[in-house]
Every structure is written in structure tokens, then in C-alpha cells.
Design a protein that fits this description.
The structure holds 2 protein chains of 2 kinds. By secondary structure, chain A is α/β, with parallel strands linked by helices. Helix content of chain A is 46%, strand content 10%. Chain A contains 6 helices and 5 strands, in the order H-E-H-E-H-E-H-E-H-E-H. In chain A, strands 1-5-4-2-3 form a 5-stranded parallel β-sheet. In chain A, strand 2, helix 3 and strand 3 form a beta-alpha-beta unit. Chain B is an all-alpha fold. Chain B has one domain. Chain B contains 6 helices and no strands. The longest helix of chain B has 24 residues. Classes of the chains: A alpha/beta, B mainly alpha.
Chain lengths: 149, 169
């Protein structure tokens, strides 16, 4: 067994990976979350809590059943699936509220980013809570249960 | 015949089977083919793979990006070398180390009760409908990786038996 060969395989793989990411056109920015795109405003839980205290309206991008089990106080359900119907019901309020925060299930959940982008396409800006619901509950911030906001 | 003699005989028989060059060829092609195939979709869609890696919740977002960009190329290279029969033991060692890391990560995911719909093992696209037994992190993935780890161990430890030459006339 020649150990250097195993190390060389790994080294060549690493070099090829970086080269592919840089030159292939399939690459992406490595230094930030892959979920974040240009135009996204991502805020941490502490900032989200401060905005809630200042009257921000929270939007729950998770499926409605998750919203019923527990949500951020005052949050309206605006799930990624069924967005159009939920948006139609909420649109008048969303167009007059200028402090919106959208969140989802955290860790690998993309729904909040997708909902924020759909809102942006309609001319509405919403910040995204980084790591979503688990970041909020881990910080010990208040929650509500049930269908009502 | 004492117990030790029987054990030695069994070991010798097992070694004889595992060193069969056709079995070794089969193991190389199967293992190398799987790793090479598994790398292709990830290489073509590194950003989608980064999302899958992050869903495992083993490493943070930036580390997930690095894994997504680098890992598939190591898989591809080791897989291609196994298929070609070059650096057989060394490339099998790389595959074995990767499999041990995958098994540890899968055990961590299962222990924490995290539901990963698509493990990203061979494709990064969305799963079809319900959580898939074959694509999620679960029993199937653990068993499959253990089988592949066994195959890699054979390639590392047991040298193939040279082809028998016909006796000279």
C-alpha cells in the first residue's frame, strides 16, 4: 500500500472540484449559504424578535399543519405550496405592511427564500429569518399554537 | 485435526475465494461504477447538492458548500481508478474512508431524528412523492454502505490471485 497515492487521489479530487466550481459555469459562491440569492435580506433571530416587538408581521412559509402546531405570535400562514391562494387572501394587508419577516422550518428549508422571492416578484419586500423556526424556539422566544395568528 | 487447523483451513478457503480475480474484477467494477455514477449528478448540480448536504445538519452552510463542490470529484476519481484497475488498493482505501464517514453521518442523522428525504447519494433531484425508502437516510442506506465497505475492505486487504499459466509443452 502506497499511502501517498490515496492522498494524491483526494488532492486531485479537491483541485478538480475547485477548478470545476471556478471555470465550468456550474459553480456557486462558497462563502455564504447556498440558499441566499441576490436581493435576499437574511436576519438573525434576535433581530427578528426586535422587529416583532416593533410590530413586524411574520409570515409562516411552512405547511399549514406546522403553523397550527406552533408559530411565531401574529404570524400568518403563507405556505410555499398553495402560495397563490394564501397570498390572494393576505394581499391587501401585505401591501400596506412594510415590516415583513418570513420563516420556515430551518436547516435546509428553502421555503422562506422561495416565498420571499415570490413576494419580491409582486413588489413586496420581506426579510428572511435565518434558520427559521428552530432558531426562534432555540432562543426561547414566544410562540403560539392553533390556526389563529 | 485440531480446532486451529480447521480455522486455518477455513481462512485459507475464504482467502482463496476472495482472491479470485473474477470476483475482484466484479467488486472493482461494481464499487467503482457506483461511485462514478453517483458523482455525475452532483458534479453537474453542485448547488443543489450543497442544499442536500446542509439538510443532513452535520456541517454548517459554508462547509456544506465545500463538501458539495469537492466530494463528488474525489468519488469520481476513486471510482474511475477502481474501474480501470489502477491503484486498486489505494482507491479502494479512499472509497472505504468515504463510506465510514457517510455511515457516521447517517448514524448521527438517525440518532437525532432528522428526516432527510433525499440522501444525495446518487442524485440531487427532489424525491418522487412520499419519502423514499431507497433515497432517504435510513436502513437501506446503512446496509448498502456496509456492503460496499465490505467490498472495499476485500480490495484493500486481499490481493487478486494471478491468472494460472498453462503448463509449457
Amino acid at each position: 500500500m502506497r499511502w501517498w497515492r490515496s492522498l494524491l487521489i483526494v488532492g486531485l479530487g479537491v483541485a478538480a472540484g475547485f477548478a470545476w466550481n471556478t471555470f465550468s459555469g456550474h459553480g456557486f459562491v462558497l462563502g455564504q449559504s447556498v440558499f441566499v440569492q441576490a436581493g435576499d435580506e437574511v436576519i438573525e433571530a434576535a433581530e427578528a424578535k426586535a422587529r416583532l416587538d416593533r410590530g413586524a408581521l411574520f409570515l409562516d412559509a411552512r405547511p399549514p399543519d406546522f403553523h397550527k402546531m406552533g408559530h411565531i405570535p401574529g404570524a400568518q400562514s403563507l405556505p410555499e405550496e398553495g402560495f397563490d391562494a394564501a397570498f390572494a387572501a393576505l394581499e391587501p394587508r401585505l401591501r400596506t405592511h412594510f415590516n415583513l419577516v418570513v420563516y420556515c422550518s430551518g436547516y435546509g428549508c428553502e421555503s422562506s427564500h422561495i416565498v420571499a422571492r415570490k413576494l419580491r416578484e409582486k413588489g413586496i419586500h420581506a426579510a428572511i429569518l435565518n434558520e427559521g423556526w428552530p432558531a426562534w424556539t432555540d432562543a426561547g422566544y414566544p410562540t403560539r399554537a392553533g390556526a389563529a395568528p | 485435526m485440531d480446532g486451529r487447523g480447521l480455522s486455518d483451513q477455513g481462512r485459507s478457503r475464504a482467502l482463496s475465494v476472495l482472491s479470485n480475480r473474477w470476483l475482484q474484477l466484479l467488486l472493482r467494477l461494481a464499487l467503482g461504477g457506483f461511485f462514478l455514477y453517483a458523482s455525475l449528478d452532483k458534479i453537474a448540480n453542485p448547488a443543489a447538492f450543497a442544499k442536500v448536504v446542509y439538510q443532513w445538519q452535520v456541517v454548517g452552510p459554508v462547509a456544506s458548500n465545500l463538501v458539495a463542490v469537492l466530494l463528488p470529484w474525489v468519488e469520481a476519481l476513486a471510482g474511475a481508478l477502481l474501474i480501470a484497475g489502477l491503484w486498486r488498493r489505494e482507491s479502494a482505501l479512499v472509497v472505504a474512508v468515504l463510506l465510514v464517514v457517510f455511515l457516521g453521518a447517517a448514524a448521527s442523522v438517525l440518532a437525532r431524528g432528522i428526516d432527510v428525504e433525499n440522501c444525495g447519494c446518487s442524485s440531487v433531484g427532489p424525491t418522487k412523492g412520499e419519502r423514499s425508502f431507497f433515497e432517504g437516510v435510513g436502513t437501506f442506506l446503512i446496509l448498502r454502505n456496509l456492503v460496499m465497505l465490505g467490498a472495499a475492505a476485500v480490495l484493500i486487504v486481499v490481493p487478486p490471485r494471478p491468472a494460472a499459466h498453462p503448463p509449457s509443452p
